[in-house]
Design a protein that fits this description.
Layout lengths: L1 H4 L2 H51 L4 H14 L3 E7 L2 E5 L2 H5 L5 E7 L8 E7 L3 H11 L1 H38 L14 H71 L7 H31 L6 E4 H18 L3 E6 L5 E4 L1 H18 L5 E7 L2 E7 L24 H4 L4 H11 L4 E6 L2 E7 L4
Parallel strand pairs: 6-8
Antiparallel strand pairs: 1-2, 1-4, 3-4, 5-7, 8-9, 9-11, 10-11
Helix pairs in contact: 2-5, 2-6, 6-7, 7-8, 8-12, 9-10, 10-12
């Protein structure tokens, strides 16, 4: 029962077979009831007509001829008997005794006139009416054979109907099962123009649209995962930044606190407050500069480029940054130059921040180059290149240069290694301007490249 309950083919087969069997049995029952009665009526009507014709033929004939005609009539029409009464004499024709015993025999009497008799002649015709009962018996006897034929035809018809109706449904059912598993690598091929064909076409269209939507959703999810990774990375960098900032601030504050306490207690050389105060002031200025850089980074992290989005003249920003660094370059006997072989280059963004990034790149090149070396800036269409000679970077440390507070100088001495925030600021500003960059070693030189095509 469970198998039938879960099978549409079995259900359709049983429904169609039951319906066909029932209809066939009803039709057979109607035939059993109607046909015998109709047959009897037609038979009786035929006998009546023949008897009328016989009566017409017997009138105005002689007695002998009439006997021959009546005898021939009864022989020809089985189940019909006749009695001819002439005066007190009676003459029988046909199987009169058998018919007379029938309960439902039909008798008809007519008056005839013979040419050779003066007496009144009566003709009585008796016909048996048992045809209906015989037909009913035949129908009943045929029921087993008819029932077998009905079941066979119904089963074949039901099987054919179930295949025609259910096969497309099964295909659609299998397709819907694959759809439920988000498998869209299929096509519902049902070559029909009826409702099932429309349903199959609708499923194909739905599959196509769902596939496109899933691909788009997957692409969106991938972008979202990338954004989440970026946010996670940025959050980690922010935590690391403030942890490093706390460490970087702790040292100068400890130094300042020690110097001030020593001056208050007049310990050693700190008795001469006037000679020590300039050193303390220098340390305070360094700490102040560090705090400013930390605040600059924080503002960038929070505000980004701000509301400014202007056209930046890259040539002009580069000239201003180089002019600001000329005094430092002269102190170290470094030749700093600017070469351009293209018209003015423009980008979109914040001019002040972009100028700050260029200043940090150039100042880092000047600061870390040995005396007597060269720093050269080249602007060519979509690329800005800054090269400083006489120095190279350890290859294993290049990827760490943009980490907050990272310094190649292992002593972490700010007089020789800086604060470690310069390149981190550069990386942050260029990222906000959607500019890619790269730093690498050349032949006895370091090359910093900025691609100016914003994407």
């Amino acid at each position: 029962m469970r198998k039938i309950k879960n099978s549409l083919s079995a259900k359709v087969f049983l429904w169609v077979m039951s319906a066909l069997t029932l209809c066939s049995l009803v039709i057979y029952g109607i035939v059993m009831i109607v046909v015998p009665h109709e047959f009897t009526a037609v038979s009786n009507s035929r006998v009546s007509r023949e008897m009328e014709n016989l009566t017409s033929e017997l009138n105005h004939t002689d007695f002998k001829t009439a006997n021959d005609i009546i005898s021939e009539f009864c022989t020809k029409n089985l189940g019909v008997a006749a009695m001819l009464t002439v005066g007190e004499d009676s003459f029988s024709f046909g199987d009169f005794d058998n018919i007379h015993g029938e309960e439902k025999a039909v008798s008809t009497s007519v008056v005839l006139a013979f040419t050779d008799r003066e007496e009144t002649v009566f003709l009585t015709m008796i016909s048996e009416s048992s045809s209906a009962e015989e037909l009913n018996g035949v129908f009943i006897g045929m029921i087993p054979f008819v029932l077998g034929a009905i079941l066979l035809v119904s089963a074949v018809s039901a099987w054919f109907c179930s295949r025609v109706i259910v096969l497309p449904v099964l295909k659609i059912s299998r397709v819907s099962g694959r759809m439920a598993k988000l498998d869209m690598t299929w096509r519902c091929d049902v070559d029909r123009s009826d409702e099932l064909g429309v349903l199959a076409d609708s499923l194909n269209t739905l599959s196509l649209k769902l596939g496109e939507a899933m691909e788009e959703l997957e692409a969106t999810n991938e972008r979202l995962r990338e954004e989440i990774n970026k946010v996670s990375t940025a959050e980690k960098q922010r935590r690391d930044f403030f942890a490093a900032a706390s460490h970087e601030l702790k040292t100068p504050i400890t130094v300042l606190k020690g110097q001030i306490e020593s001056m208050m207690l007049e310990i050693g050389r700190y008795k001469d407050i006037k000679s020590v105060l300039p050193e303390t002031l220098i340390e305070i200025e360094k700490t102040e500069q560090l705090v400013k850089e930390i605040l600059s980074v924080s503002r960038l992290e929070i505000n980004g480029l701000g509301e400014k989005n202007e056209k930046i003249d890259v040539n002009e920003c580069l000239r201003e940054a180089i002019e600001a660094l000329i005094p430092l370059a002269l102190e170290k006997d470094i030749e700093i130059s600017f070469d351009t072989d293209c018209p003015t280059v423009y980008i979109e963004g914040n001019t002040a921040l972009f100028r700050k990034a260029l200043h940090n790149i150039l100042s880092n090149a000047v600061f870390h180059s040995p005396n007597g070396s060269k720093v050269k800036a080249e602007l060519s269409g979509e690329k800005l290149t800054v090269t400083n000679t006489g120095v190279t970077l350890p290859e294993e440390e290049i990827n760490d240069l943009f980490t907050p507070f990272y310094r190649v100088e292992k002593s972490r001495n700010k007089d020789t290694g800086g604060s470690g925030l310069g390149l981190y600021l550069v990386e942050t500003i260029l990222r906000l301007h959607r500019l890619s960059f790269n730093i690498s070693n050349g032949e006895n030189c370091v090359i910093f490249t900025v691609m100016l095509n914003q994407n």
